[in-house]
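Question thread 4412

I'm putting together a teaching handout and wanted feedback from people who do this every day. The idea is simple: show students a protein as raw sequence, then show them the structure tokens that encode its fold, then repeat with a second protein so they can compare. Below is the first pair exactly as I plan to print it.
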Amino acid sequence: MAVRLFNDRLISVGGAAKMAGESMADMLTRLSRLGVPVVDYDESSLVHELSAATAWIKPVLLKK
């Protein structure tokens, strides 16, 4: 039921985990195994998120 509610966007992944009595990591694993997407970005949001991640990780990688 928790997976269905999450898939229908009625509850968050955290809510689904709580409902199922699982950790968020276990719920994310379950959703992944069931092929349920856990992120749903439009193109501009995805570009923004990837740019932010790149800006954050680049200094860490350069230190190595």
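The second pair follows. I'd like the answer to focus on this one:
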Amino acid sequence: MRFVCLGNRWKGCTGSCYHIFKRHWALGYAPEAARLFINFAFENELTDSIISIIHVNNLRSQRLAEKNDLVCEKQANWLDFWMFIFLESIRKIGKFNL
């Protein structure tokens, strides 16, 4: 894994990000790392919600987000790239307005 971070703020949300070297793909590290950060943020009351901004063509990351209970809330144009905004909320009540 090259880097991990928690705390990117975008429109009042906390984001998680990481990069895994290609030679380590499909070994289960990405879902485990994502779930670790999501749980850490919620258990330590660091945020009420986590977002993941994923390029529309990145199907593996979209499946990973869904595996970790994030829900695709909307599609948005960010820096001239079309992205899906995935969200997991500690409350999980209603839609999230971005």
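Top answer:
Good format. For the second protein you could add a caption like this: Residues 91-98 have pLDDT under 50 and may be disordered. The beta strands are 3-10, 13-19, 49-55, 71-78, 81-89.
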